[in-house]
Amino acid sequence: MEEFFQQLTNGLAVGGIYALIALGYTMVYGVLKLINFAHGDLFTLGAYLGLTLLTSLGLSGHLGTVLGLIVLAIMVTGFVGIAGALLERAAYRPLRDSHRLSAVVSALGASIFLQNTIMLIYGAKNYVYPLDILPRTTLHIFGLPVPLVRILILTASLLLMAGLYLFIQKTRLGTAIRAAAIDQGAAKLMGINVNQVIMIVFLVGPGLGGVAGLMVGLYYGQVNFTMGWVYGLKAFTAAILGGIGNIPGAMVGGLLLGVIEALGAAYISIAWKDAIAFCVLIVILIVRPTGILGERVADKI
Amino acid sequence: MMNEKYKLFLYSAFALILATAPLYLNSYWVDVLNSVGLYAILALSLNIILGDAGLYNMGHAAFFAVGAYTAAYLNTQFGLPILWALPVSGIVAGIAGLLVARPVVHLRGDYLLIVTVGVGEILRIALINDVFGLTGGPNGIFGIDRPVLFGFKIRKPQEFFYLIWGFVAVTIFLFYRLKNSRFGRALDYLREDMTAAEGSGIDTGRYQLYAFMVGAAWAGMAGTLYASKMSIISPESFSFWESVLIFIIVILGGSGNIAGVLLGTFLIIGLPEAFRGFANARMWFFGLAMMLMMIFRTEGILPHRPRVFKSLDRQRP
To answer: In angstroms, rounded to a whole number, what is the distance separating the alpha carbons of residues B179 and A287?
Structure first.
């Protein structure tokens, strides 16, 4: 029971991170119908920027841990969001009307480019986050031990998701994003500036991905420049699991995938941990390609 | 018609230069050409799936791995001569292709892409975990025999050059014939317009599956050649990155065009060798080049041209 509870909370913490990355995939896919392969590397960028800002500015020393981390998260969101918007402007906008495959290759190129930019700047070694930022205490809930870090990570990701959900559902800009996702042409006719909407999507999605990178750094204490691929692929799986293009779906999918993976690693085999997510992906695409909350996508044979 | 003659001359001149390459290149560059040849086989086989049938397969290294491991296992466990393993690994990889494609071939483009990525990763993890005790885990399989052709044992890079490029030549010939057959025309049709193809009585699902099987089988045979050349294979040779590389060769070279795919292989596998000095920044330039290429020359270097039939040519005034 205790083992199960440990894996469950671990899975929820990791799942929250997956969900934040998955939101970036799903928003971009919703508006542009493009898999943004560079999203995983923007996430890595967030992790590295977070580390640099954390060690060079000493924010938590000046402002206290809580306020310091919040300021740090806002800065990372801003920088990575700007990087995402620039990426869209440079690599995706010129290809918006050309063949889908061209955009996919451009996205792969962008991913290789970003990954190697990070490697050239920081070097190819692993980096370690300072360990004393988050309190390493363990709470006892109903007699079961839960590390406080997990609760903080999960809470932070849930708050961000709730904020995004309100933004998408309740504001004018959010409504414009939803309209552009349903039908770009019609949205244009209704006076929506679709280019601006896409820019906002590329600010918000990578911004959330960047915060997820910061969280991974704080949670695992270690980052390296290639980690974007694996996290990216898993988060994309989470987005499909929930139904791609669907924002609540990405949240549910992310949390679910995190829990499935943690439990699978514990009870099936740790060596197969990374394969579990991909098995889930294949099964869901064969059985229910629309995802849990998604629209119809597959064509019949 | 002049254009055709000019093309023929260009191709024969290129073939002649290539065929005599081992006479004036040192072993290192011959070895580079050997890798170019192996990637050319892989890229041509992916071209059937991606360029001709229009199925986004980004897990092609998986079939390459199935072929290589089948050949290595049969050779080291049962002593089957490595070139005899060629058809066997082709068949096994073809069956693997069928098993992968059958449930997912109907998925919309990007979904198929991500599923094939997933399949490739699962296979790689299975190889590392020594599934059923067949694959030798992270160390892989070693001590694979050198190929023996008509009693002649192939050892040196110069000798492998002729084995590999001979296979490339056979591949080009067969795939060229295939492209101009009923099968090739059906693939052209269904890639351009699935609904119209289906309306004209083409069993689109079946043709897509065939294309996937042929491509996978050919990649499996390339795996056999690779295993015999390296004499040791391990899971890291079949990473996700390999699949991406083959995918990029086909797209950048010009998907659907055999000459374009070959040119793409030379540029992407051969050219970086010339820039070994900038090892670190190489990939950075590569990513940048991919983006620029797609923005300024979307269809690839030598794009696929719609076929022109002779009878129509003659009717022109």
So the answer is: 34
Structure tokens at A187: 């949205």
Q: Which residues contact A78 (CB under 8 A, 6 or more apart)?
A: A207
Residues of A in contact with B284 (CB under 8 A): 112-113, 116-117, 120
Burial class (CB in 10 A: 0-12, 13-18, 19+), A123: exposed
In angstroms, the separation between the Cα of residue A195 and the nearest Cα of chain B is: 18
Q: What is the DSSP string of A141-171?
A: ETTEEEEHHHHHHHHHHHHHHHHHHHHHHHS
Whether residue B82 contacts residue B205, with contact meaning beta carbons closer than 8 Å, is answered with no
Which of A137, A161, A134, A156 shows the shortest CA–CA distance to A220?
Answer: A134
Other C-beta atoms lying within 10 Å of the C-beta of residue B304: 18
Is the pLDDT reported for residue A134 higher than 60? yes
Give the model confidence (pLDDT) of A39-98 as tens digits: 999 999 999 998 888 888 776 666 677 788 888 888 889 999 999 999 999 888 888 888
d(CA B57, CA B212): 9
ipTM: 0.81
Q: CA neighbours within 13 Å on the CB side: how many for B201? A: 1
The answer to whether A276 touches A266, Cβ cutoff 8 Å, is no
> Cβ contacts of residue A132 below 8 Å, gap of 6+?
none
Which residue of B123, B298, B299 to mutate against A (max A Cβ within 10 Å)? B298
Q: A4 pairs with which residues across the strands?
A: none
B265 close to B253: Cβ distance less than 8 angstroms? yes
Q: Is A173 helix (H, G, I), strand (E, B) or coil?
A: helix
Residue B107 corresponds to which tokens in the numbers above? 């998925």
Burial label, B292 (beta-carbon count in 10 A; 0-12, 13-18, 19+)? middle
Which residues partner with A140 through β-bridges?
A: A145
Comparing CB atoms, the residue among B115, B280, B295 nearest residue A94 is B295
Given a contact cutoff of 8 angstroms between Cβ atoms, the answer to whether A213 and A76 are in contact is yes
- Distance in angstroms (rounded) separating the CA atoms of residues B215 and B46: 6
Radius of gyration for chain A, computed over Cα atoms and rounded to the nearest angstrom: 19
Which residues fall within 8 angstroms of residue A73, CB to CB, at 6 or more apart?
Answer: A156, A211, A214
Strands (DSSP E) contained in chain A are 127-128, 138-141, 144-147, 222-223
End-to-end CA distance of chain B: 15
Per-residue model confidence as pLDDT tens digits over B138-180 = 887 887 878 777 777 777 777 888 888 999 999 999 999 998 8
**Which residues from chain A sit within 8 angstroms of residue B111, using beta carbons?**
240, 285, 289, 297-298
Q: Which domains does chain A have, with CATH numbers?
A: 2-287 (1.10.3470)
